[in-house]
């Protein structure tokens, strides 16, 4: 057989998906014979069902034969609705032409990096951060340059630190706020300083705002609210998290840079031609219909966050801050790792086998995640309580502080 492309050796993965097959095997072979089940606290997938008005819009669209190809960058009504929503936080009015709809928010990462990065180009990425950024940069021959997000800085960073990472090869910075996996939120001052640096050094910005509606304090600030940024920024957003629509696969890019919008459209033409028509109609209902379900789900996440934070801090050797956004808890387990002489990946595996709870090691999000494990609190309150009871019992049996 001829060999695979060299690029494939550089493509990474997203652990939240790849651990599932290992976990399912363990559940099936070890836990089920004992009448037990694994508790899944690892994935960022809302356990709520998609609100009914959105489901009905999808069904109506099928019945109305919205089952054909659409224009590649999306149906005009959805592009217009996205532009209006994005304009609320930006210093400019976005138009429908500034929006490229895609069959996942995740696709924006792939296509924007594809549009910009040549081998040798550097991209500054949050670390810990969503693993797909680094994976795609490496795949395309670029160099990811990690920007450490540290617990002691409330998962922000200093502008001096960011500045020290910029070189003549830097082409792009990726930001994500509210953030996966830390739940951290970048302050207005940090974003303003970043915007300044991006303009001074002529850098592109990918602003991943997929968690913008899951914010527990204050108002979401987009880097596009600063003068001169909409032209060099692509906003990534979509319906998955805020509207509990992960399985529908719908996202979009928003940019005031017409050349970038046209390249993204061309990439979509080469890739999927367009996003499924009926899904776009459901997405339109999500954005333009009643928003109370979004608030209800967010309030529920906040209750679960408070419960999880208090239960986690009762486990010996575990500590965490209360995150300001998203639905993740990045828990410091350094004392346990030091005492047991294991790393966070080994520890996550021990928790799966010993407590029957699936979590992700911090290193699934980059090297600066060592010493941490990530919980997701989209699970039901019952699962959170039971999972934490099992973890506390297990950890108490192997560690005491
Ligand atoms: C930070 C971040 N960006 C993008 C995505 C992708 O979102 P979608 O599932 O809508 O493609 C995720 C999903 O987990 C995420 O956590």
Please give a structural write-up:
This protein has helices spanning 15-31, 52-63, 76-87, 105-116, 131-139, 159-165, 188-200, 258-271, 277-288, 292-312, 334-340, 344-355, 381-398, and strands spanning 39-40, 99-102, 122-127, 143-148, 170-176, 204-208, 233-238, 251-254, 328-332, 357-358, 360-361, 372-376. 41% of the residues lie in helices and 13% in strands. The strands form three sheets. Strands 2-8-7-6-5-3-4 form a seven-stranded mixed beta sheet, with helices on both faces. A three-stranded antiparallel beta sheet has the order 9-12-11. By secondary structure, it is of the alpha/beta class. The protein folds into two domains: 6-49 and 293-398, Aspartate Aminotransferase, domain 1; 53-288, Type I PLP-dependent aspartate aminotransferase-like (Major domain) (Aspartate Aminotransferase, domain 2). The protein has 13 helices and twelve strands. The mean pLDDT is 96. The structure holds pyridoxal-5'-phosphate. Residues 44, 104-106, 130, 176, 180, 208, 210, 238, 240, 246, 251 line the site of pyridoxal-5'-phosphate.
Give the secondary structure arrangement, pairings included.
Blueprint: H1 15-31, E1 39-40, H2 52-63, H3 76-87, E2 99-102, H4 105-116, E3 122-127, H5 131-139, E4 143-148, H6 159-165, E5 170-176, H7 188-200, E6 204-208, E7 233-238, E8 251-254, H8 258-271, H9 277-288, H10 292-312, E9 328-332, H11 334-340, H12 344-355, E10 357-358, E11 360-361, E12 372-376, H13 381-398
Parallel strand pairs: 1-10, 3-4, 3-5, 5-6, 6-7
Antiparallel strand pairs: 2-8, 7-8, 9-12, 11-12
The structure holds pyridoxal-5'-phosphate.
Pyridoxal-5'-phosphate (PLP) binds at residues 44, 104-106, 130, 176, 180, 208, 210, 238, 240, 246, 251.
């Amino acid at each position: 057989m001829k060999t695979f492309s060299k690029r494939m050796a550089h493509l990474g993965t997203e652990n939240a998906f790849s651990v599932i097959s290992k976990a399912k095997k363990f559940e099936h072979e070890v836990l089920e014979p004992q009448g037990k089940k694994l508790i899944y606290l690892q994935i960022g997938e809302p356990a709520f069902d998609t609100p009914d008005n959105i489901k009905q819009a999808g069904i109506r669209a099928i019945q109305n034969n919205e089952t054909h190809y659409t224009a590649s960058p999306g149906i005009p009504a959805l592009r217009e609705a996205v532009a209006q929503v994005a304009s609320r936080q930006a210093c400019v009015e976005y138009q429908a032409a500034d929006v490229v709809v895609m069959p996942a928010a995740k696709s924006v990462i792939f296509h924007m990096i594809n549009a910009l990065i040549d081998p040798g180009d550097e991209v500054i990425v949050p670390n810990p951060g969503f693993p797909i950024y680094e994976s795609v940069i490496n795949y395309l021959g670029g160099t990811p340059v990690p920007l450490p997000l540290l617990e002691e800085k409330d998962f922000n960073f200093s502008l001096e630190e960011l500045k020290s990472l910029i070189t003549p090869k830097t082409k792009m910075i990726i930001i994500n706020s509210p953030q996966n996996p830390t739940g951290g939120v970048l302050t207005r001052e940090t974003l303003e300083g970043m915007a300044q640096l991006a303009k001074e050094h002529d850098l592109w910005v990918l602003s991943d705002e997929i968690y913008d509606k899951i914010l527990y304090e204050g108002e979401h600030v987009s880097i596009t609210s600063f003068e001169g940024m909409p032209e060099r920024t692509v906003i990534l957003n979509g319906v998955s998290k805020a509207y509990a629509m992960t399985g529908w696969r719908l996202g979009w890019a928003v940019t005031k840079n017409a050349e970038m919008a046209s390249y993204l459209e061309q990439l979509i033409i080469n890739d999927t031609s367009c996003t499924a028509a009926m899904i776009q109609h459901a997405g339109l209902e999500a954005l333009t219909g009643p928003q109370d379900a979004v608030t209800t789900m967010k309030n529920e996440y906040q209750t679960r966050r408070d419960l999880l934070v208090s239960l986690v801090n009762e486990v010996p050797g575990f500590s965490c801050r209360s995150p300001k956004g998203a639905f993740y808890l990045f828990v410091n387990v350094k004392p346990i790792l030091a005492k047991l002489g294991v790393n966070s990946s080994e520890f996550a595996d021990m928790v799966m086998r010993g407590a029957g709870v699936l979590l992700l090691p911090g290193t699934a999000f980059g090297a600066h995640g060592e010493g941490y494990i990530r919980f997701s609190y989209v699970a039901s309150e019952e699962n959170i309580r039971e999972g934490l009871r099992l973890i506390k019992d297990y950890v108490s049996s192997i560690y005491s502080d």
